[in-house]
Amino acid sequence: MGDLSKVRLSNLSPAIRQYLLVTGNYWAFTLTDGALRMLVVLHFHELGYRPLEIALLFLFYEFFGVVTNLIGGWLGARLGLNRTMNLGLFLQVAALSMLLVPAPLLTVPWVMAAQALSGIAKDLNKMSAKSAIKLLVPADAQGRLYQWVALLTGSKNALKGAGFFLGGGLLVSVGFQGAVLAMALVLALIWLLSMIYLRQDLGKSRNKPKFSQIFSKSPAINRLSAARLFLFAARDVWFVVALPVYLAVNFQWDHWQVGGFLAVWVIGYGFVQTLAPRFTGTGKAQGKLPDGRTAFAWALPLSLLPVVIAGSLFFGWEPEASLLAGLLLFGALFAVNSSLHSYLIVSYADEDGVSLDVGFYYMANAMGRLLGTVLSGWLFQAYGLTTCLLVSSLFVLLAAVFALTIPRHD
Questions:
Q1: Residues 34, 166: contact at Cβ < 8 Å?
Q2: What is the DSSP string of 277-318?
Q3: CB count in 10 Å sphere of residue 303
Q4: Quick one: DSSP state of residue 80?
Q5: Contact 366, 69 (CB under 8 A)
Q6: Could you read off the pLDDT of 128-149 as tens digits, one per residue?
Q7: E-assigned strands of 140-237?
Q8: To 5 degrees, how large is the angle CA 54–CA 330–CA 323?
C-alpha cells in the first residue's frame, strides 16, 4: 500500500505536488488556529471572563492581520512564498509555546501578545497559500483556478469549524496546557517537513519590489479590496460578539450549544464555498468566468437577509427560528460571495509579485474583520442585535457597489 502511494505521488505533476504541499500546510495550520481560538474562549470563560472581554483578547489578532498582509505580500515577493509560509508555521508554534507558561502567568496582556503573534502567523500562511495557487495554474486555465481557489478557501473554513470541536475535545481530555503542547508539537513537525519539501523559488518576484509598492496601483485590485473590506465587516458586525451573547442571554443557550452551533455553521459555510463554481453558473461548461457583475448579483440577495432577520426580531415573529434560519441562509450566500471574491483577486493579481496584490487585498479583508469586531461589541452593547443587522445590510450594499465598478478582466 505504501509503495502504491509513492508511485501515485511520483506520477503527479510538480505543480500538483506543490499544490498538495501548500494545501496540506494550510489545512494543518487552520485546524490548530480554530482549535486555539476555542481553547482560549472556553478556558477564559471558565475563569469568569465576560463574552466582550473574551472578544477583546482577539483584538490584536485582527489588528496585526492588517499589518501582516500589507507587509507580508512585499516579503513574499522579495523572499519567496515558501519562506513566508514557513515563517507563518514557525510563528504559530511560537504563539502556542507562549501559552505553555504556568497558569498564574497567563495574564490578559500575555494572551493578547500570543494572539497577536498567532494573527501574524495566520495571515502570512493564508497570503502565501492563496498567492501560490496563482503560480501553480496555467494562465489559460481560469476555470481550474476558480475550482482550486474555491476548494482551498472552503476546506479552510470547514477545517476551522472542525478545529472548534478539536479545541473543546482536547480541553476536556488533556487540559489547556496539554492541548496547547500537543498542537505545538504536531505543527512543529509539519513546519520541518515544509522546510524540506516546499519549492525554494515559489512566488519570488523577478524584479525586487520596493517597500513603497505595498499599496496597489491597480484600480481593479483597489475596488475589489474595498468590496472585500465591507463584505467581511458585514459578517463580523453581528457574528463575532453580538450573536454568541444574544444566543446565550435571550435564548438561554449554554456555552456548548453556542460553540457547537457556530462550529457547525462554519463547517457548512466552508462546504458551500467549495461548491461555489457550480452555484454561480460559471466555468468551463458555461464558457464564461465570474467578474464584478457576478459578485454584484450575488451580493444583492445577501444584503436583504439581515434586514429580514432584524424585522423578525423586532416584531417578535418566531425570533429563535427566524434568527437560526436566517443565519444558515446568510452563511450559504456569504460563502458564495466570499469564494467569488477569493477567485477574483487571484485572477486579477499580477503574476510577477502576485503576493503584493494578494497581500494588499487580504489587508483589506483583515481591516474589515477588525472593523466588524469592534462595531459588533459597541453596537450590540449600545443598541442591540437589530442595529448590528441593519449595519450589516448597509455594508453588503457597499460591497456590491464596489464589486460592480470592477473593470472587465481579459
A1: yes
A2: HHHTT-BTTTTB---HHHHHHHHHHHHHHHHHHHHHHHHTSS
A3: 19
A4: -
A5: yes
A6: 776 776 666 666 666 777 777 7
A7: none
A8: 70
Q: How far is CA 62 from CA 58, 234, 270, 302, 369, in A?
A: 7, 15, 20, 24, 7
Q: Tell me the percentage of the chain whose pLDDT exceeds 70.
A: 80
User: What is the grid cell recorded at 86?
Assistant: 514557513
CB neighbours of residue 154 within 10 Å = 22
- Of 13-27, 147-161, 266-280, which gets the smallest average pLDDT? 13-27
Per-residue pLDDT tens digits for 214-253: 555 678 888 999 999 999 999 999 887 788 888 888 888 8
Structural domain boundaries in the chain: 14-198+215-404
- Give the mean model confidence (pLDDT) for residues 62-89: 76
Is 14-198+215-404 a domain of CATH 3.30.200.20? Answer: no
Cα gap 124→199, rounded to integer Å:
17
Contacts of 11 (CB under 8 A, 6+ apart): none
Tell me the three cell numbers of residue 270: 466552508
Is 87:12 a contact under the CB 8 Å cutoff? no
Report residue 173 as a C-alpha cell.
481530555
* CA pair distance 13, 145, nearest whole angstrom: 16
CB atoms within 10 A of CB 187: 23
Residue 325: exposed, middle, or buried by beta-carbon count in 10 A (0-12, 13-18, 19+)?
Answer: middle
Cβ distance 188 to 93 under 8 Å?
yes
- Model pLDDT for residues 344-359, shown as the tens digit of each residue: 887 777 655 566 777 7
- Quick: pLDDT tens for 82-97: 788 888 889 999 999 9
Write the burial class of residue 144 (CB in 10 Å: 0-12 exposed, 13-18 middle, 19+ buried).
middle
- Closest by CA position to 119, among listed 13, 222, 33, 218: 33
Angle 119-128-56 (CA atoms, 0-180°, nearest 5)? 10
